[in-house]
Every structure is written in structure tokens, then in C-alpha cells.
From TrEMBL:
Name of the protein described by the UniProt record: Branched-chain amino acid ABC transporter permease
Membrane topology: Multi-pass membrane protein
Membrane spanning residue stretches: 12-30, 60-82, 94-112, 139-158, 186-209, 221-249, 256-276
Keywords: Amino-acid transport, Cell membrane, Membrane, Transmembrane, Transmembrane helix, Transport
Entries under Pfam families matching the protein: BPD_transp_2 (PF02653)
Main location: membrane
Superkingdom of source: Bacteria
UniProt xrefs under InterPro entries: ABC_transp_permease, BCAA_transport_permease
Cellular localization per UniProt: Cell membrane
Family the UniProt entry places it in: Belongs to the binding-protein-dependent transport system permease family. LivHM subfamily.
Length: 286
């Protein structure tokens, strides 16, 4: 029982990290219909910039803010320079964002160096709790809390605020929203920036979790994010949360019992969903 609880907490933490990456992808693809294969690069830049700020200041929360600002700025540049010219053309979006993903990875080596970087959790989050005979790692509980907060805040904004109403209306009928005097281009750019910031947040939280970061990590985790988006349902924010937790738990248990099959089980989950429920486990955007 103790082992099951430990693996479950580990799986939830992994799932929340994947959710933060997939949530941004869901926002960008589900609400804007943009296939952004450079999303993993924004994740990696969040990790590197966060670790750099943490080394500079020694303050983990300033590091998180630094990573989020990096994600916002890179999201602004990516939307304006890379995505805007190819709106409405999925083939061009795939090609140009895949190329930009490589550029982002290589730029990490130029700016921060080609070697892997070590990352440790802040002192106050290091260590663990004992609940009975179960060891609960503090930092993993922190990740689960952050993921739950991000889901609650984003869901509330999308469903309960005027901003969320404008975004959802813009997805359904851009021309109608534009005719009401709302700059829908600006709204979509802000959505893209928020999605990029979520990816960067996931990156900076992953760094102390894994203990090491490297330039190619973006592509590796982007694959998991796309698996989550497919399983959860294209554009379903709640579906992404559910699928990310499912993938995180599957990966955690398989890594313990059959480590060689930890990625394969997620691929199997995705294929099963595509065969029996191609629209994903959840439907409906937002």
C-alpha cells in the first residue's frame, strides 16, 4: 500500500507537469486552431531561464516569475513573426514551427552553453513528509498544488469572465467579434502568450524535479504533451488535465515495474483512444 501511494503521488506530480505543458498547447490549438510544434522549445526556455534567474537571485519564486516573463516574450515573438503569417494553413504551421523548435533548442546551447545544467529544489521545499509509513516528497506536492491552481484559475477565466467569453466567441465567429469593436487579433495574440507562459512555467518547475535540464528536453516533453491533447480531446482544457494525470500515473507505475515500456504505454493509450474514440475522451473546447 505504501508503495502504491508513493507511485501515485509521483504520477500525479508528473501528470501536473505534463498538464502545464499540454494546457498551453490546448489553449493554442483548441482555441486558435494553431499547430505549434515549437511549444516544447518554449518549455525548455522556461526551464533554462528559470534556473539562470535562480542561480542569480537565489529566490525560487523570482525564478518562476522570470520563466513566465520569458514565456510571455517568446510567445509574443513567436506569434508575431512565426505564426501570424501562416494562420489557417496547418501544413505551413507544422513545417515552420518544427523548424523554429530546432532553432529554439540550438539557441539554448548558444546562450547557456551545450552542457547539461543541474537544478535543485529550494531549501524550504527540499526533503519530505512522513504520513504513516508513506514518504511524501515536498516538491512533488508543490507541483501538484501549482497544477491544480493553474487549472482552477484558467477554467474560471475561460468560463466565468468577460475575457473568457470574448475568447470563446472569437473562436466561434471571428468576424462577429471583430464587428463589435474588439481586436480579435490582439485577443488571440494574448492567448498565445498565455499558452507559452504556461509552457515556461512547466519547464521551470520540471528543472528541480528532474535535477537536470538539457536543450533537447523540449522535443521529448512535447511528444507527451501532444499525446495528452489527443487523449483528452482537441481543445478540451478539462480533458487535458484528466489525460495528463492518466499519462503521469501510467508512466510512474510502468517506470517502476517495466521501465522499458514507460513511454510505450502512453503511445498505446493514445492509439486506443484514436481507434475507439477519435475525438478524445472529452469533447467541447475550453
Amino acid at each position: 500500500m505504501d508503495l502504491l501511494l508513493s507511485l501515485t503521488v509521483n504520477g500525479l506530480a508528473t501528470g501536473m507537469l505534463i498538464f502545464l505543458l499540454a494546457a498551453g498547447l490546448t489553449l493554442i490549438f483548441g482555441l486558435m486552431d494553431v499547430l505549434n510544434f515549437a511549444h516544447g522549445g518554449l518549455f525548455a526556455w522556461g526551464a533554462y531561464s528559470g534556473v539562470w534567474v535562480y542561480d542569480l537571485t537565489g529566490n525560487f519564486f523570482v525564478a518562476i516569475i522570470g520563466a513566465i516573463v520569458t514565456g510571455l516574450l517568446l510567445g509574443l515573438l513567436t506569434e508575431y513573426l512565426i505564426i501570424r503569417p501562416v494562420y489557417g494553413n496547418h501544413v505551413q504551421q507544422i513545417l515552420i514551427t518544427l523548424g523554429f523548435m530546432i532553432v529554439l533548442s540550438e539557441m539554448l546551447k548558444v546562450v547557456f552553453g551545450p552542457d547539461q545544467k543541474a537544478a535543485q529544489p529550494p531549501a524550504f521545499m527540499d526533503g519530505s513528509f512522513m504520513v504513516g509509513d508513506v514518504i511524501l516528497i515536498k516538491y512533488r506536492l508543490f507541483i501538484i498544488l501549482v497544477g491544480a491552481l493553474v487549472y482552477a484559475i484558467t477554467f474560471y477565466i475561460l468560463r466565468k469572465t468577460k475575457i473568457g467569453l470574448i475568447v470563446r466567441a472569437g473562436v466561434m465567429d471571428k468576424e462577429m467579434v471583430q464587428s463589435l469593436g474588439i481586436n480579435i487579433r490582439l485577443v488571440f495574440m494574448l492567448v498565445f502568450m498565455v499558452g507559452s507562459a504556461l509552457a515556461a512555467l512547466g519547464g521551470v518547475l520540471l528543472a528541480p524535479y528532474s535535477g537536470v535540464i538539457y536543450a533537447e528536453m523540449g522535443m521529448e516533453f512535447a511528444i507527451l504533451a501532444f499525446i495528452v491533447v489527443v487523449i483528452g480531446g482537441m481543445g478540451s482544457f478539462t480533458g487535458s488535465l484528466f489525460a495528463a494525470i492518466l499519462v503521469g500515473l501510467a508512466q510512474s507505475f510502468m517506470a517502476y515495474y517495466y521501465s522499458d515500456l514507460s513511454l510505450a504505454v502512453n503511445m498505446l493509450l493514445m492509439v486506443s483512444v484514436l481507434v475507439f474514440r477519435p475525438q478524445g475522451l472529452f469533447t467541447g473546447k475550453g
